[in-house]
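Newbie here. two chains, one complex. Structure please?
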Amino acid sequence: MPYEDDEVTRLIVDGHDAVAFAPVAHLTVGGLRDWLLSYEATSEVLAAVSPGLTPEMVAAVSKLMRNQDLIQVGRKCRVVTRFRNTIGLPGRLSVRLQPNHPTDDPRGVAASIVDGLLFGCGDAVIGINPATDSIPAAIELLKLIDDVRGRYDIPTQSCVLTHVTNTLAAIERGAPVDLAFQSIAGTEAANRSFGIDLGLLGEANEATRSLRRGTVGENVMYFETGQGSALSAGAHHGVDQQTLEVRAYAVARAFDPLLVNTVVGFIGPEYLYDGKQIIRAGLEDHFCGKLLGIPMGCDVCYTNHAEADQDDMDNLLTLLGVAGCTFVMGIPGSDDIMLNYQSTSFHDALYVRSVLGLAPAPEFEAWLDRMDLLDERRRVRELAPGGAQLAKFVGALELT
Amino acid sequence: MSNIVGDPQGHTENEAGTVGDTAAGVDPWVLLRRFTAARVGLGRAGDSVPTGRLLEFEIAHAQARDAVHTAVDFTAIRAGLTGLDTLEVRSAAPDRATYLRHPDLGRRLDPHCDTLPAPTPHNPHNPDEPVGGRFDVVFVIADGLSARAVHEHAAPMLLAVLPRLPDWRIAPVVLATQARVALGDEIGQRLRADLVVMLIGERPGLSAADSLGIYLTAHPKTGRRDHERNCISNIHPPSGLHYHRAADTLTHLMTQARHHGITGTTLKDDLPTLPQTSLTQTSLPRT
């Protein structure tokens, strides 16, 4: 994509840090792989080189790397971001609580939020995909999450994953906006098909920061990506889907996001045919995003027309946990009843944190303690269906 | 966890109860499930899902997979459309495996298609303008990603809407195999219809493997973009949208489309609030 024709190319070229690049400038792509894996390339060294790497370099080297290489180097890269809590610290894995509902019924959404909180989920964000494009409906959902967050005094952030222009309109109308969300892609034309450009993302970043709602930091952008979106939009310029995906991470890093995740198996088998391809893509995306310095999470997911099942998701979730993935999704019983696909569940979050010894964000973990939701072995308590603690927790919702 | 019972899908019609005064000894999830079909309050086996819930999930996944891979049977659907003329077409995707990997083939007619008129030459004064005028509307029933949705809902849905269109010139119903939404563009163009209405099986979810979607496109021709269509989704009574409700919405949209000569986002903006009408529930295609 020529510099003259594509603002993402201009962003990559103009933002390239030649000084940071110098230590690896002499390397071939294969040499870069060896160097990334070497003991010399510590977390600090990788972070210093990161601004000197372009998405094309990172995508290229990922293609020479085996899954274990992607895990090893991904694990070395640390990216820490903050809003009302601290995300991305070593030994931590955060979860986006995704309480979607096909008609945005506030009680239905609240039921899913409570369920997730009781599993220790929601420290990355409580983030709803709304069922409509309506701005008033988005504002209602923002108020709903803000109200739940206030009632339980939860150190986390909320987001309604609507178009960035809707979020800007909600900000103008005084809505409690913590984060601005947007799907992004790796070419100017694909971003235009999403109705955005870099200027608009900058505007959203500024407007959301101006609300000063963060308590421990001001990373306010939440981006989603996924291999294949540029081809779906007819805006791929003949470039492979993985390189374009990594170019989207260059877009993300320009706006200091709190969270970025690839929705790795969402579109369908025309891009990632089966579990093996979804697993590979999830590890590639995580590695590439982390190396470029963004807080990379993953929607470990599949559709029912792909050749994949829960076993594949278990594999990818475990591998990403080992790779130091920043966050995953938490959906009641893995079944998103609005978007009609399967992602990771609240139970999955318990599992992966348990087997790998990972904890939620520290502020959120302290909240779980205050709510008496952790037992003496730091496991999330199971509240009895007829017990007083669950009744108290649910009763605080005052659903009528 | 043994007292957590009830079908997570079967309670959306219930009247809301009061949860605010939930007392100890009562399982609040029984009440909360009235508000959502989401799999909330599943209970736990350690960190994992209890066996009963695990098996429910796996059955639902198998049903959704079957819905994707079951071949559509138009014989039964034709029988349900008594008295209506039908035509059958196939897309350029020869089989299901190819269809799933190559959406572009599902958007084009089989090059050997001989059941539709040959393409009409374009208007010499404006080559981009499709030549309509022969029919006001053509209905297309397409398998899409759920043959089950089409088997269960396409005929009754069509029969619910036809009586509402007394003054419409309606083309024979086209039954399309291995079809994506955009296949309707070429069908409508070849039949010289002013509007194509496609009833198509939606991507199956676990809680609804039989969901039917309806897409309207004015002045169909190959190359129409998704923002030029209107969509009614989630038709799958009893838990999803009902036929009569969808038919009301569809008739309204069709009347507006005929009056304004357009469909898509610009048309939607002129409409009052409609049930379950959204083109952009997600930024990514569902069928």
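Moderator note: Chain A touches chain B through 63 residues (CB under 8 Å). The radius of gyration of chain A is 20 Å. Thread marked as resolved.
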